[in-house]
Specification:
The complex is a heterotrimer of chains A (430), B (332) and C (289). By secondary structure, chain A is an alpha/beta fold. Chain A has helices spanning 2-28, 34-41, 68-73, 75-88, 114-127, 139-151, 164-169, 187-198, 211-226, 245-254, 265-277, 294-300, 319-329, 341-359, 364-373, and strands at residues 55-61, 92-94, 99-101, 103-109, 132-133, 156-157, 176-177, 202-208, 230-237, 258-262, 284-287, 308-310, 376-378, 381-383, 385-386, 389-390, 399-403, 406-411. In chain A, a hairpin with a 4-residue loop joins strand 2 (92-94) and strand 3. In chain A, helix 14 crosses helix 15 (364-373). The longest helix of chain A is centred in the N-terminal third of the chain and has 27 residues, at 2-28. In chain B, helix 2 (33-59) crosses helix 12 (254-273). The model of chain B is unreliable at 313-332 (pLDDT under 50). Chain B has a two-stranded antiparallel ribbon with strand order 1-2. Chain B has helices at residues 3-30, 33-59, 66-80, 86-107, 114-139, 151-174, 176-186, 188-193, 198-224, 229-232, 236-248, 254-273, 278-292, 296-311, 320-331, and strands at 144-145, 226-227. Chain C has 289 residues and is an all-alpha fold. In chain C, strand 1 (134-137) and strand 2 form a beta hairpin. Classes of the chains: A alpha/beta (430), B mainly alpha (332), C mainly alpha (289). The interface between A and B is large, with 58 and 73 residues.
């Protein structure tokens, strides 16, 4: 009896010891690549900056997992093209070093997991000691990443994601700058404006049961009545919903002029398909993220005539807009286009580059200062941040509509590239 | 038997263990910041895996409820984080999970084998969707912010949870209670016959393992800063401990720990070094490992050791199952 | 009122048909071959994306793609069982060890297939519009594509059931499902049968993926969602019971449709409540013994 107990204890101890060795090995290993980075960190405060031959930018991106669907079509093509263009020109000019420094990217896969994203973000900052941090993908990820970047004093110009609740947090996050437009910044007020002017009186709102959907349905509940549009029906959709026909039938029965689907591609695309299948033809069909993507148009073809979504520009608006569209989209399938996000993210990266060039150093605090106070010249024209948000006066569009196969800006009026089509043409039958 | 060798081992192994504990306990003093962050993740996975093995290992009931207990801990932290001091929050997270596990355990007594696995899996999804529905319709939101805690504190809390867990696991294994647990795994009816209160032993062990998972969840939430039902009740947290334990090998107590350490570290290397192909490489490693090491990493270690023992003409160690069989028959 | 009920019932059947098909595939792999195939959804994804490519790049009718996807997936599944799971079966000392080892292997498989799909197709949503026109059924409106989907799901399900009930090979599969050891003694080549089951499972998944792509967008990371549904339905129907999975799929679809009518937010909660209650009351499922 006694010997047996000893045996099992011995086994246990051996096991524990072995485990410890494994743990230690794990603990020591990541430290090994550090020396390579070490020279860069030591003399940060020294008056004469050490020689530097590149700007290292770190990103934690959803290369795999559920969020890859958004990440891959939204910010990724923008930052890849931007880095290519800047480096082809020699890099970003930094006065402190008296030369142009090319950008080098370190990209990690966060597997669409917030926990992994926060860990990798800290790795980029404290272990890889990247010069700059570029954003993760998605509003929830943004909520988790922004406090970390701010804590370490890293400027974070965000891409995919934006929310009213984030707006309230920005005063406490001086290093965070938000580029994407969102519900009350300034999409829904414009939507209510142009639709009421066209004669819409009633709306049926369905929204995805998450932060994004709740916010959009909430804001439309405030903005629509202001313009005399009554919300006659409202229904939430669980994120994993498959069959949308009950909701579409309910909307159809409500006979509302406007149908809103404030959800993601995963719901907006089936909602479109189901509307076609059920012959549901409201006078305006508005959808959230997804409608603006090129792949939406390639999936349904000319049938999507008149469907409305969110946007921020159209290549027709200016020379700069045309040039950006060529850079990002020319020679590629239509699938890759995102006229809502791409110009705003691009403008964000431009403000980043110009801020560095203005201060002539890579000092985060000084760059933050410039970003918060100065104006920049970007693809959108004159661009500046207002309390951490890209000013709505810089937006070159809010509401888009598929007209003759192009996603035109139809609101606000001063940026419109086409007249709003209302009521929208019926879905083709057969 | 060679006495001097055993004496040497008696000193050498606890000594090494002590050194490792001290090294781990003091690592924030000298290790790089990120090493501490990564170690926190590794410790977290060890806690999840060892807790899982504590119940599922001896009884053979595959639990996929880890994500449920972990998520409950996370939500406890999100709700109480601003109101209570951190140690209390962590204890609450553990206790809420403990209670949930008692309830689930009591409900699922009739379920055997794979049905228990699937029930626990369904539980995770049920809690997730119920919470989502509740948050949207009752509180009008989906996500919550969690209070920020500095990295070293998180590390130490996780380390303490792990040490207590290891001690608990060790004491359970050594006690009569642990034998009762083993006997349930061998033959539940026979165990009941020899006077083991099968129900009580199962439910209590399940709840104890949930206690540690919940505590780990509530401290980990403070690293994530923002959570929602999908982030908190990610089914991956149910599968990971099982896979890590299998990968490490269930034959020895250190197997699951080894599995958790290497699994986590391997993934870390792959997502940072080969972000575009990490899944491909990881998948191939998993398949190759399971093909050539059907007993997990432990199998590899044991193969090496058996070869050594054969050389030294020491009879192979009595396997665990035999020990238990003898123990239970002698007590019955 | 009658139209509303008709609406709900038909919508439930339409969804149920897809569920039934994906569950039958998993039922073969899990119920018979004892592989809790976590990569099941990846075969659905492969079927969907292949159909999309064939339709958009070559203009191939999705229903014709069925004839390509099904056999291709069958061969793939058969080979995977022959090379991977057969070896695991041989090296595992007990059936519970095989179950855990094969789960780990299928997890690895999921990672590999998903990464290959990401390399080929990227993670973007892929959709196309096919037969998206309304059909009036006694006052209730439905998409023609969905009705076609249901028709094919039922046809595939029935054809497979007849195959199991009438042919020699089908009988061998059923024998293996009930008692592999005895089946082996009775002269059934058990390895052959298990590989066939795995292949058929993959083929059913790919065909379901093809049908799904007609109604919903498909993308490289969609698999897990369907794997989870398949697991629920398989348990609902009773482990190892193929008719059970078929019926279970329709029941789940109907329940989902009824609840969605009242509150879409509660549809999934209801799935799991039913699922959990059923396990507690009747763990062997609807058709189990």
């Amino acid at each position: 009896m006694n010997t047996k107990k000893n045996l099992s204890r011995r086994e246990f101890l051996q096991g524990a010891a072995l485990t410890g060795v494994g743990l230690l090995a794990a603990a020591c290993a990541p430290a090994t690549p550090a020396p390579a980075e070490a020279p860069a960190e030591a003399p940060t405060e020294a008056p004469a900056p050490p020689a530097k031959d590149k700007i290292v930018v770190g990103l934690s991106r959803p290369l795999s997992g559920w969020n890859a669907v958004i990440g891959d079509s939204a910010f990724r093509p923008v930052y890849e093209t931007f880095v290519e263009e800047v480096n082809a020109d020699g890099g970003v000019y930094v006065e402190e070093y008296g030369k142009k420094l090319p950008i080098e990217l370190i990209v990690y896969d966060d597997k669409s997991d917030v926990g992994t994203m926060t860990r990798l973000t800290e790795k980029l900052i404290v272990e890889d000691k990247v010069d700059f941090l570029w954003p993760a993908s998605g509003t929830a990820f943004l909520f988790a990443q922004a406090p970390i970047a701010n804590k370490y004093g890293y400027v974070l110009i965000t891409a995919e994601g934006g929310a009213t609740s984030l707006k309230d947090m920005l005063p406490s996050l001086p290093y965070v700058f938000v580029t994407l437009s969102f519900s009350d910044w300034y999409q829904i007020p414009v939507l209510a404006d142009i639709l009421s002017e066209a004669g819409a009186k009633t709306a049926y709102v369905t929204y995805i049961a998450d932060l994004h959907g709740i916010e959009y349905s909430g804001v439309s509940g405030i903005e629509f009545p202001k313009k005399g549009i009554e919300v006659v029906g409202i229904k939430s959709l669980p994120p994993d919903i498959k069959d949308l026909s009950p909701v579409i039938k309910d909307a159809k029965a409500s006979e509302a002029d406007i149908f809103c689907c404030f959800a993601y591609p995963d719901q907006n695309m089936p909602a479109t398909g189901t509307s076609m299948e059920l012959g549901y033809n409201p006078k305006a069909w508005v959808g959230g993220p997804g409608i603006n993507f090129g792949f939406y148009h390639t999936a349904f073809g000319p049938a999507v005539e008149g469907v409305m979504g969110f946007t921020s520009f159209n290549p027709k608006q200016s020379e700069a807009a045309k040039a950006l569209a060529d850079k990002l989209w020319a020679g590629k399938p239509e699938d890759v286009q995102d006229p809502w996000g791409h110009p705003l993210y691009w403008a964000g990266l431009e403000t980043w580059k110009q801020a560095i060039e203005k201060v002539g150093t890579l000092d985060q605090e000084k760059i933050r200062e410039i970003l918060a106070t100065e104006k920049f010249d970007t693809v959108l024209g004159e661009t500046w941040y207002e309390n951490g948000l890209l000013s709505k006066d810089c937006h070159t569009g809010e509401i888009g509509q598929w007209i003759n196969g192009l996603f035109e800006v139809v609101g606000p009026k001063e940026h419109a590239t086409a007249e709003l089509v209302y009521p929208k043409p019926e879905w083709p039958t057969g | 038997m060679n006495m001097s060798k055993i004496d040497l081992k008696k000193v050498w192994i606890p000594g090494l263990l002590l050194i490792i504990l001290v090294l781990l306990g003091t690592s924030p003093l000298y290790a790089s910041i990120y090493t501490v962050i990564l170690l926190t993740s590794i410790l977290m996975y060890i806690v999840l895996t060892v807790s899982w093995v504590m119940f599922s290992g001896p009884t053979g009931y595959i639990s996929l409820a880890t994500a449920a207990f972990f998520g409950v801990g996370i939500y406890t932290s999100a709700i109480l984080g601003m109101k209570l001091p951190l140690p209390l929050v962590v204890i609450c997270g553990g206790l809420v999970s403990f209670c949930l596990a008692l309830l689930v355990g009591a409900l699922t007594l009739r379920l055997k084998g794979i049905y228990f696995a699937i029930f626990t899996f369904g539980l995770v999804e049920l809690i997730k969707h119920l919470l989502l529905w509740y948050e949207i319709n009752m509180t009008g939101t989906r996500g919550r912010f969690v209070i920020l805690v500095d990295n070293n504190t998180i590390y130490y809390v996780m380390f303490i949870i792990l040490v207590i867990l290891m001690l608990t696991a060790y004491l359970i294994r050594r006690s009569k209670y642990g034998l009762a647990l083993q006997s349930i795994g061998q033959n539940e009816e026979a165990a009941a016959h020899i006077g083991v209160n099968v129900t009580l032993v199962k439910v209590i062990t399940f709840a104890i393992s949930a206690l540690f998972i919940g505590a780990a969840g509530s401290i980990m939430a403070t690293r994530w800063t923002y959570i929602d039902p999908y982030i908190s009740f990610n089914p991956l947290f149910s599968f990971m401990p099982v896979l890590m334990a299998i990968f490490g090998g269930l034959g020895q107590p250190y197997g699951p720990v080894l599995g958790a350490v290497i699994f986590t570290y391997l993934e870390e290397i792959l997502i940072t070094r080969f972000p575009y192909h990490y899944m491909l490489i990881f998948g191939i490693i998993l398949i190759v490992a399971i093909l050539y090491l059907p007993d997990g990493l432990v199998g590899l270690v044991q193969k090496g050791r058996t070869r050594l023992s054969v050389k030294k003409e020491i009879s192979p160690p009595v396997s665990e199952t035999e020990t238990v069989a003898q123990e239970s028959s002698s007590s019955g | 009122m009658i139209v509303t009920i008709l609406d709900i019932v038909i919508a439930g059947l339409l969804l149920g048909g897809l569920y039934a098909l994906i569950a039958m595939g998993l039922s073969l792999q899990y119920g018979v071959a004892r592989v809790l195939n976590i990569s099941h959804g990846e075969f659905i994804m492969l079927g969907g994306l292949t159909t999309w490519t064939l339709y958009t790049a070559f203009g191939l009718n999705p229903l014709v793609a069925l004839a390509v996807c099904g056999p291709a997936a069958f061969i793939l599944g058969f080979i995977i069982h022959r090379t991977l799971f057969k070896r695991l079966l041989a090296s595992s000392t007990s059936s519970s060890i095989f179950e855990s080892n094969s789960m780990l292997a299928s997890f690895g498989l999921m990672f590999i297939i998903q990464n290959i799909a990401l390399i080929i197709w990227g993670p973007e949503m892929r959709g196309y519009s096919y037969l998206a026109v309304p059909v009036n059924l006694g006052g209730a409106l439905f998409g023609a594509n969905r009705l076609v989907t249901l028709g094919f799901a039922v046809a595939i399900g029935l054809a497979f059931y007849i195959f199991l009930a009438r042919t020699r090979m089908g009988k061998a599969i059923r024998a293996a499902a009930q008692d592999p050891a005895t089946a082996g003694l009775m002269g059934v080549n058990i390895n052959q049968v298990l590989a066939l089951c795995f292949g058929f499972g993959a083929a059913l998944a790919a065909m379901a993926g093809m049908l799904i792509s007609m109604c919903y967008p498909v993308h490289g990371v969609m698999g897990m969602e369907y794997t989870i549904i398949a697991i629920i339905v398989v348990v609902l129907g009773g482990l190892g019971s193929i008719p059970g999975s078929f019926i279970g799929g329709f029941i789940l679809g109907l329940v989902g449709s009824i609840v969605t009518y009242f509150d879409p937010g509660l549809a999934l909660v209801t799935y799991y409540v039913i699922f959990i209650l059923l396990l507690l009351v009747r763990p062997t499922g609807i058709m189990g013994n």
